[in-house]
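User: My instructor asked us to take a sequence, write out its structure as tokens, and then describe one feature of it. I'm not sure where to start. Here is the sequence I was given:
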Amino acid sequence: MASPLLIDRDFLKTLEEITLLCREDLTGPIGADHRSRSHGPGMEFADYRRYSAGDDPRFLDWSAYLRLGKLFLKIFETERHVPVRILLDSSESMDCEEAAESKFFYAQRLAATFCYLALLRLDMTAIIPFAERLHKPIQVAGGRENFWPILQFLSDLSTKGGTDLYRCAKEFVANFPSCGIAVLISDFFDEEGAKRSMEVMRSAGHDFVIVQVHSAEEQRPSAFGELMLEEAETGIRRTIECSREKAALYEKTFLEFSNRLQRLALRNGGRYARAVTNVPYQEFVLQSLRSGQVLA
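Assistant: Let's start with the prediction itself. The structure tokens for your sequence are:
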């Protein structure tokens, strides 16, 4: 069946050999596939401990009792899956039609990638679109066979409205109180909102990943002369004179902004990656997210 988002089938096969990394102290000791383990009845033996009143007698080791004359309880490990939630910016600023590839389309592909990685490990995953507030999410679990509803959900999304990252972050931690991996995909042009949203994520204990998506034109303009600019979310227009020197100065300012985002993410215990839409999304995933210790 063809994907609504044209996710390359060969790329999906490549993803099957990749793991989404998780902070080690999120819910306990974490294995390579980011599932945490806690003691309890399960399939894999872990250790023994002395029996105490109230313990389940089904897990007593009678062979040890016959040898030692003491009651010991078998301890097993049980796998706990870490939920993966993708917050996808669907505000008007994500609709960059002049770019070689729409920012929002690129962001949709990245959201689909993160969901597929989560489903491969049988983790619960959710996509939560947001703009000025959170929109209705989709939540699925149970394996790759549930990937198709994710693609259909993403293909039906469109951009609309302004951005309020801080408000959306507060709504997110209220609606999803259990700790997990939170992937925020946005252009983050609401810098103060980005700063406060990272602080909210840190305080709530989420392991968060910041993925900044922008076009090459947004980093360095290629149009020169007298330009009429219109702010995507407010419609405010402004006339400017753009020279090559001013474009170079603007690019320097833009990269400083991206560096501030990265420092903010690291300072708050998160991870950061920057995606430019003229770079194939497969290349970004396999190279940039790996070097940023998001994937392994």
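For the description part of your assignment, you could build on this observation: Confidence is low (pLDDT under 50) at residues 27-43. Try explaining in your own words what that tells you about the chain.
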